[in-house]
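Re: your question about GNAT family N-acetyltransferase

S., sorry for the slow reply, the queue was backed up all week. Below is exactly what I fed in.
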Amino acid sequence: MPSERTEVQVRPGVEADLEALTALYNHYIRETAITFDTAIFTPEERRPWLLSHPVDGPHRLMVATGANSQEILGYATSSPFRQKPAYATSVETTVYVAPHNGRLGIGTLLYEALFEALSGEDLHRAYAGITQPNEASGRLHERFGFQYVGTYREVGRKFGRYWDVAWYEKPL
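Result:
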């Protein structure tokens, strides 16, 4: 586990990361309402997701690793906001940090790298949906210039209860 931000490297995600990225995401499926996926994935089932995030273009995957271990500490993505063509200049962003690596600045490093990578793209807005409650995610997004725009009440059901999702937007 890294003890300082300098021990973390951020780079584009590659196919060799697929198994570790899948395991990280599956943790959030099993243990939290942060994602509304309810069934875990195999790496093969997650391959199309990984391949939909090339090293260039508006849809990116940035991975944080330990500088020496290359252990996956977290990842951030920009993905299509909606499928219709008029939404092409909008992206939805997200960050997942390995549970034992919270509060070490990894989410910040990931978003710094992601937004730097997106700075030359033809994008107008970024959106983030944050399942409530999640104060840490709200603070992270606000630090990066996201503003709260509204809440979808009880929009998702997981673990036998309904969850609200707060929506944030950021000009790009």
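The beta strands are 8-12, 61-66, 72-80, 90-97, 125-131, 147-158, 161-171. The two ends are 33 Å apart (CA to CA).

Happy to talk it through on Thursday.
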